[in-house]
């Protein structure tokens, strides 16, 4: 029985009856390359975006660009943080209780956050949220 939501490599490797040392080394090497190469490309593109944002002259454009940049950077950071937690920790420090939680984060929570974050940049959605918080008398101001 796999103590997981779906059959990921670390969860299936726990069930292996053979020596897992070589398999874990391959997983760490391949995972390290994939997990660090993609964020490197993303960081390079973020650098170009950041340079372009600083060249903007309009404060409205600047604010909207920084808002989009920050929300996307946060989502990408959470995604890669949980992926690194899942795939690059040694098997001795893995807990079968925390792995399913981490996998839910990078397979379900992050993809659900993207539409929410980008819809909060819409003025009508922002005003609806502000109205809801004011009716509930919560002191919340949306800075998106």
From TrEMBL:
The keyword Metal-binding is assigned to this record: no
GO biological process per UniProt: G protein-coupled receptor signaling pathway; sensory perception of smell
Domain of life the protein comes from: Eukaryota
GO terms assigned for molecular function: G protein-coupled receptor activity; odorant binding; olfactory receptor activity
Keyword Transmembrane helix: yes
Location relative to the cell: Cell membrane
Transmembrane segments: 26-54, 66-89, 101-120
Gene3D superfamilies reported for this sequence: Rhodopsin 7-helix transmembrane proteins
Membrane topology value: Multi-pass membrane protein
Gene Ontology cellular-component annotations: plasma membrane
InterPro entries associated with the record: GPCR_Rhodpsn_7TM (IPR017452), Olfact_rcpt (IPR000725)
Chief localisation class: membrane
Residue span, G-protein coupled receptors family 1 profile domain: 1-118
Keywords assigned by UniProt, alphabetized: Cell membrane, G-protein coupled receptor, Membrane, Olfaction, Receptor, Sensory transduction, Transducer, Transmembrane, Transmembrane helix
Family matches, as PANTHER family: OLFACTORY RECEPTOR
Name under which the protein is recorded: G-protein coupled receptors family 1 profile domain-containing protein
Species name: Rattus norvegicus
